[in-house]
Design brief:
Radius of gyration: 18 Å
Order of helices and strands: HHHHHH
Number of helices: 6
Helix content: over 70%
Largest sheet: none
Structural class: mainly alpha
Strand content: under 5%
Number of strands: 0
Shape: elongated
Distance between the termini: 27 Å
Length: 149
């Protein structure tokens, strides 16, 4: 289990590093240049990005929750851990995609709304940070239910 947590933390931190690198690079590349100036295009792209985020973040969290319930029922520990790792990576990847899209959108469109949306994605990413307690709570809910009865 410790090996799984280390892999997930490494993946999470590498995604964070990519997000920071993208932000810094975009800041210096597009500091004074607004790439798209057509207001209709800006509104359409901004709306599409916000809609993408409104769909993908809750969907990723809900999908992961349902997937973990199925994974917890698997009896083979190795299969359970590898399935959990895949599901956790998918959740982190989906939420980080919304973070990267909103960050790039902010710099390309100079739309402050997308900066706030990136903040929401960062907060959602905090719910994905893998810890030993979180992984144990995710993988052993059936044991807790039997003990409480």
């Amino acid at each position: 289990m410790d090996k799984l947590i280390k892999k997930l933390k490494l993946f999470f931190l590498s995604i964070c590093a990519v997000a920071i690198l993208t932000t810094v690079t975009s800041y210096f590349s597009f500091k004074n240049d607004i790439i798209i100036t057509n207001q209709n295009a800006v509104i359409a792209i901004k709306s599409a990005i916000l809609l993408f985020m409104l769909i993908i973040i809750p969907l990723a969290l809900k999908w992961f929750s349902k997937r973990v319930k199925k994974i917890a029922e698997i009896e083979d520990e190795n299969l359970q851990l590898s399935s959990y790792q895949s599901a956790s990576i998918m959740r982190i990847a989906l939420i980080s995609a919304s973070l990267l899209v909103s960050t790039l959108g902010y710099f390309f469109l100079d739309a402050t709304d997308l900066l706030y949306a990136a903040g929401i994605a960062v907060i959602a990413m905090l719910f994905c940070f893998p810890t030993k307690t979180r992984v144990e709570n995710d993988l052993v809910p059936l044991l807790k239910e039997t003990l409480s009865e």
